[in-house]
């Protein structure tokens, strides 16, 4: 989704150091697709058959990407092996580069459109993650409410400065949506390790249904259902064949939580995309704005469906 750095962009000294980590000369390389970062996403392979995944970036390429890669390395160092996560091999500074190296996750990106089988495999993997990583094993992480909460107050920002093309349903329910978003932030509290950026391009699935969660830059501590709700909010299902609404309720029921938790969290996520869809285009990430508009438009029908079956919401917090 963006112009990533590649093996050929690395200086000779960095390529040599990575060959030391690999245990042999690099025979082939391939670049992974997906994501919005400028960072490399290279799979390097040795003549002996070993493969490693390499993220490398400089502050001059994108300082935010460098910060996120450092955060990811710190999280990966503490994630249990039982979690469906590629193992950290090493992370280091090299001149003005920061480099993160992991084992290569098996599989490929989920099918688009999603299949029910792959969606269920990912939801099962998220349950496996929570079982392996509750209580949260990674120290000093922000809570999900801290990391995502400000984004989820998009409807507050919409109320302050409404766009001219705001959907009529949102206009009619804006105050109640603002109240729901505050409740949604509170519903994300907990002590499970959360990926906090679960979407199709951060998932790899094998033919047998084994799942790996990659790109841990936004790791947080929160509710055991936070990741599943974030994933389900991202699923485009215009014909209703994936039964996303029903899957949201099933996730909540497995964890003994009321259906209203899911509605409130999804409202907060929708608020972010309604607000973010009007942000200026970042020339370094040209496809991010279309992605945000698409997420806004696909999530709104799910929220309105759940809203129609919910009890009357309470007022905004004072």
Automatic annotation (TrEMBL):
TM annotation in the entry: none
Aminoglycoside phosphotransferase domain boundaries: 46-250
Source domain of life: Bacteria
Protein name, per record: Aminoglycoside phosphotransferase domain-containing protein
Provenance organism: Brachybacterium fresconis
């Amino acid at each position: 989704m963006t112009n990533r750095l590649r093996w050929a962009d690395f200086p000779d000294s960095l390529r040599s150091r990575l060959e030391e980590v690999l245990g042999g000369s690099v025979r082939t390389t391939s670049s992974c697709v997906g994501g919005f970062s400028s960072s490399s996403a290279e799979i390097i392979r040795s003549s002996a058959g070993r493969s490693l995944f390499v993220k490398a970036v400089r502050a001059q390429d994108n300082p935010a990407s460098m910060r996120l890669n450092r955060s990811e390395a710190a999280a990966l160092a503490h994630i249990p092996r039982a979690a469906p996560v590629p193992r950290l091999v090493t992370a280091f500074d090299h001149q003005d580069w920061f480099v993160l190296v992991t084992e290569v996750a098996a599989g490929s990106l989920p099918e688009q459109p999603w299949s029910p089988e792959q969606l269920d495999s990912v939801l099962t993997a998220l349950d496996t993650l929570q079982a392996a990583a509750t209580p949260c094993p990674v120290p000093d992480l922000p809570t999900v409410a801290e990391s995502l909460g400000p984004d989820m107050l998009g409807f507050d920002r919409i109320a302050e400065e409404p766009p001219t093309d705001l959907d009529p349903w949102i206009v009619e329910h804006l105050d109640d949506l603002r109240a729901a978003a505050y409740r949604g932030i509170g519903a994300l509290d907990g002590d499970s390790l959360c990926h906090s950026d679960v979407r199709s391009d951060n998932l790899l699935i094998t033919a047998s249904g084994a799942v790996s969660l990659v790109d841990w830059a936004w790791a947080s501590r929160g509710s055991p259902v936070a990741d599943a709700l974030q994933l389900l909010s991202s699923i485009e299902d215009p014909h209703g064949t994936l039964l996303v609404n029903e899957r949201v309720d099933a996730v909540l029921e497995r964890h003994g939580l009321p259906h209203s938790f899911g509605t409130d969290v999804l409202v907060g996520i929708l608020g972010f995309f309604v607000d973010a869809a009007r942000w200026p285009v970042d020339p370094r990430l040209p496809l991010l704005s279309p992605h945000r508009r698409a997420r806004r438009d696909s999530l709104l029908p799910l929220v309105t469906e759940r809203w129609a079956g919910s009890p009357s919401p309470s007022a905004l917090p004072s």
